[in-house]
Specification:
By secondary structure, the chain is of the alpha/beta class. The protein has four helices and ten strands; from the N terminus they run ββαβαββαβαββββ.
Length: about 180
């Protein structure tokens, strides 16, 4: 089965977006000379997984943020597609990962949101977590995971801090977990 990496930014209090799904609170930390390892990470993945709301948010960006990568958008309704690389699916995560495997893709980026991440986590599909903690407290919003899910033990394999106060933590599932 291909690897699934949940690479995400979260506020100190564990939210990935404001209650209305906005991520403008990240703007002061973007557009600098520091990319927080993003370019290297993006080169390492072969496919992208998004929930419908996360996908719709990405459509508002000036440029399509996932060029050259096939993107699976989890939605039961129709979506507006700006790229032939966008595949709408109503399948469950296990079925989609099987399809991705048949295409020979080995490493996928689970962009989010929290509900999709919770669904992948509950099915034991996330193999790696890269969470960048941003020095902001939102007080409310879209949580890192929409549902609590089962206990999962993780092993910290890397930690990086950045001058603007961000801390990036990289975890793998612990052996036997």
């Amino acid at each position: 089965m291909p690897e699934v990496i949940y690479y995400v930014a979260a506020s100190v209090d564990g939210y990935i977006a404001t209650p209305d799904g906005d991520t403008e609170w990240l703007a002061p930390f973007e557009g600098t000379d520091e990319d927080y390892g993003y370019a290297q990470f993006y080169e390492s993945v072969e496919a992208v997984l998004l929930g419908r709301r996360t996908y719709e948010t990405s459509l508002a960006f000036e440029e399509w943020p996932y060029p050259g990568k096939p993107c699976w958008v989890f939605s039961h309704g129709n979506i507006r597609s700006l790229s032939n690389d966008v595949i709408r699916t109503a399948q469950n995560p296990i079925e989609v990962m099987a399809e991705i495997a048949t295409r020979g893709l080995q490493r996928t980026w689970l962009v989010g949101g929290g509900a999709l991440a919770a669904s992948f986590r509950s099915q034991g599909l996330i193999t790696e977590y890269i969470v960048t903690i941003v020095p902001v407290i939102l007080g409310a919003g879209v949580p890192l995971f929409a549902d609590s899910g089962p206990l999962e033990r993780l092993e910290l394999v890397e930690a990086n801090s950045y001058p603007k106060g961000l801390v990036q933590l990289r975890y793998l599932r612990a052996e036997g977990a």
